[in-house]
Amino acid sequence: MSFPKDFLWGGAVAANQCEGAYLTGGKGLSIQDVMPKGVLGPVTDEPTEDNLKLIGIDFYHRYKEDIKLFAEMGFKVFRMSIAWSRIYPNGDDAAPNEEGLRFYDDVFDELRKYGIEPLVTLSHYEIPLHLSRKVDGWRSRACIQYFADYCKTVLLRYKDKVKYWITFNEINTTVHSGLLGGGMLTPKKDLTKSDLYQAAHHQLVASALVTKIAREINPEFQFGCMVASAPRYPMTCNPADVMHAFEDQQEVTYFVHIHTKGEYPYYAERIFKKYKVELDITEEDRELLKHTVDFISLSYYNSRTVAKDESSYQQASGNISRGLVNPYVTYSEWNYPIDPLGLRYILKYYYDKFELPLFVAENGLGAIDAPKRDSQGNLVIEDPYRIEFFNNHLVEVERAIEDGVQVFGYTAWGCIDLISAASAEMKKRYGFIYVDRDEEGNGTLERYRKQSFYWYKQVIESNGQSLNREGLK
Ligand code: BG6
Questions:
Q1: Which of 154, 210, 285, 415 is the most exposed place for a label (fewest CB within 10 A)?
Q2: What are the residues facing 338 on neighbouring strands?
Q3: What are the pLDDT digits (tens) for 94-111?
Q4: What residues flank ligand 1, with Cβ below 6 Å?
């Protein structure tokens, strides 16, 4: 048996993509409430009706039903995030919002009722809108203290209910999208690489500060970083392409290095030179950064193929990270490369370098599902493509474990259908559970088990033994 017996099987969501109830229970506006089309569209002045996230999948009111379904699948862990603006509606309020705190108490209690371990992301692509307007989000150093205050409140409140924490979701996104990663309202074209790297630096310091505070609150807490991890492949064996891929990879590994070694890597200087970045790093920052994490978590959707000169190659798409079309892999409906082996590659790569426990915090396939009615009129959702995706990726996780890599958990992304992040779509579904809501926002919001629901249940029940090691096609 390759998966350890206490392997944490489960699923993952983020508050802004599933909770809805965007102004209920004293919640303030978050940056996501004015991003109706994700990173693709404009930021609106006020929340607009076309923003599917305002209702999401109404997890806020339906969490009991959802958690029951997760328990039926046998989840051992559920990765979720706390909406900062539910706790501090404006981000700089003098006192937290008790109703918001109570909501998460209830969610954690419900999870515990079924023996499901919560894994909580403190910041998953959102920030109170007021802070984005007041200080341009993470561009400002002031955010470090606002974030630390919010985190201290929740760490104290949930110190006996939550053991596993992640500070920032996909922290490396900030240097590519100031809006999504750093809550910055300044348009992309007006942001320099210095601005973006400075904002990421503020987050790295904030992450370390929160880790420090957390250890004082409960030494048993387990803290992780989270990095969007598309391994870089060279397009050819031309040494120039190989070196290019190597250096491109360093731009991602940089974030893991700082979180785990407590200092900037040697190659940071080269990156700063390349992008003309000048960072304001204080002595106090350097001291704080020494508070490192216990584990590395990652999202893996696809690999990324790169070349020194990309002009003659065709571009593919990809989650966050776009690369060149790789003729050796297949492609999803959103044109993301599907590359299960890339997951084993990145797990081994991180373990080689850092030898810290790894957690696959996100992996999944966004696809269009076509529900049908059976002869009794029940809604049936057959999704063999999703089963194939998960089977083939989980087999690679298992192979990494067999090879000695310490992977202690796996949470399938969007275990229940939710609103996608990059383009804020409903039709791009990731779940084992189907939610009746369409692209226009219509639907009953009722939940239905997909074919993959029963498949994943069996995988968890057998601790991975039911996986097809030949690979599904
Ligand atoms: C990750 C994010 O990048 O990818 C999630 O952490 C997101 O929030 C997921 O939903 C899938 O991307 P998308 O854009 O298809 O929802």
A1: 285
A2: 330
A3: 999 999 999 999 999 999
A4: 14, 17, 125, 169-170, 228, 299, 319-320, 362, 366, 413, 420-423, 428
